[in-house]
């Protein structure tokens, strides 16, 4: 199957570079007891951040005036914290996360119910943690907190989460619910003499597929649906029936994620538990009517096509609404200009060499980190999935150097 670029999905994969960077900075800051950190202490992360001088950190924070506030305490002593609006949004996020626990328990139960042994290694579930919206310590708060549903068992490969109770009411996939809804709608259309809905073949041609590709996908779609919650132990690898089941599981997993997307590598970790073929990425690409696999970045991202209208999610998780608010705050521009004064009357002088406010080349590696692994214990519950990317954003055009005064505190404009 030839891959076709679709800008609507590629834009989603690329648009949050700045937001992901701000989340990394916020994660570092939230490790501090009073959520206040000195620029000097931030320097401990200069290797990860790629910035080498103190003023580079200040310029970096200055790019996000709605999120971070920099305060001066004595000569050459600077600290930063969240702005009041960013702090308020973070507290709102914590409240929402605390209210989501029942939903998160349901997601874990459904994930285990789809596995062949109803048991999955905790280290594998961790790959889907941020996609599912699970807190960082979910193995303590959720896994241990609901013994009626889960138990943690020791295995030769590490601790695993095991299902203790099967719920038939949960064993219904999103696809099955959608099929039933479509059947009811079609019956209503006939009763109301409404015009015929756009058929599947026309939809596929809208994806610029060849006639042979359309025919193959149509034939695959006409095969009987296999519930991801059914027993698949007897399915033979490499068959169309097994592929039908694989697609059903991926569809259901993506339906359980906050953003209806995940990294292809995250799915590959579950080959054993869900009976996936060795070519997970190839399987996803061969079903463009259900999934879109991004073309940019070092790690491919797979989207659930039906969950999006253009670049926007059709139904949004409460966490997505928080993310959108934070994205708007990240987009607030800093103000440029010569001989300006900030809100507290401090004058700033502009001195440029290449339009960046710094010597040429100083910023080249400033944003090369995009993986949670670089921060280890700096992770927090305030994250959304981070995606590897080979084209870091350029934050540093038109950045001004900072003239440090004495004895004042101020917000960057």
From TrEMBL:
Residues 331-413 are annotated as: Disordered. Residues 337-363 have a biased composition (Basic and acidic residues). GO terms for molecular function: RNA binding. Residues 378-401 have a biased composition (Acidic residues). Residues 5-331 form the PORR domain. Pfam families: PORR. PANTHER family: PROTEIN WHAT'S THIS FACTOR 1 HOMOLOG, CHLOROPLASTIC (PTHR31476). This is PORR domain-containing protein. It comes from Lupinus angustifolius (Narrow-leaved blue lupine).
């Amino acid at each position: 199957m030839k891959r076709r670029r679709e800008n609507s999905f590629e834009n989603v994969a690329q648009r949050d570079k700045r937001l992901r960077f701000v989340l990394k900075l916020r994660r570092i800051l939230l490790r501090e007891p009073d959520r206040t950190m000195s620029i000097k202490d931030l320097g401990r992360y200069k290797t990860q951040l790629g910035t080498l001088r103190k003023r580079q950190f200040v310029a970096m924070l200055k790019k996000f005036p709605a999120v971070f506030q920099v305060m001066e305490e004595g000569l050459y002593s600077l600290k930063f914290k969240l702005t009041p609006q960013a702090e308020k949004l973070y507290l709102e996020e914590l409240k929402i996360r605390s209210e989501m626990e029942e939903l998160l328990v349901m997601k874990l139960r459904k994930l285990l119910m789809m596995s062949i042994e109803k048991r999955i290694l905790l280290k594998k579930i961790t790959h889907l943690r941020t996609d599912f919206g699970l807190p960082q310590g979910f193995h303590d708060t959720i896994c241990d907190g609901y013994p009626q549903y889960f138990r943690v068992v020791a295995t030769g490969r590490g601790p695993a989460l095991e299902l203790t109770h099967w719920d038939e009411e949960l064993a219904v996939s999103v696809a099955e619910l959608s099929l039933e809804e479509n059947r009811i709608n079609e019956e209503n259309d006939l009763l109301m003499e409404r015009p015929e809905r756009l058929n599947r073949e026309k939809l596929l041609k809208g994806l610029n597929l060849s006639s042979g590709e359309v025919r193959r996908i149509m034939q695959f779609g006409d095969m009987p649906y296999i519930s991801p919650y059914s027993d698949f132990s007897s399915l033979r690898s490499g068959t169309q029936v097994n592929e039908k089941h694989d697609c059903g599981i991926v569809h259901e997993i993506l339906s359980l994620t906050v953003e209806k997307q995940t990294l292809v590598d995250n799915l590959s970790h579950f080959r054993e538990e869900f009976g996936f073929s060795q070519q997970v990425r190839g399987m996803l690409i061969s079903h463009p009517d259900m999934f879109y696999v991004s073309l940019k970045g070092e790690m491919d991202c797979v989207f659930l096509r039906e969950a999006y209208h253009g670049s926007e999610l059709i139904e949004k998780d409460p966490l997505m609404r928080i993310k959108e608010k934070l994205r708007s705050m990240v987009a607030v521009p800093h103000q440029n200009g010569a001989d300006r004064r900030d809100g507290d009357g401090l004058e700033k002088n502009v001195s440029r060499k290449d339009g960046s406010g710094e010597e040429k080349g100083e910023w080249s590696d400033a944003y090369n980190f995009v993986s949670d692994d670089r921060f280890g214990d700096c992770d927090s519950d305030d994250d959304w999935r981070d995606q590897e990317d080979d084209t870091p954003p350029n934050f540093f055009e038109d950045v001004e150097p900072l003239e440090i005064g004495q004895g004042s505190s101020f917000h960057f404009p």
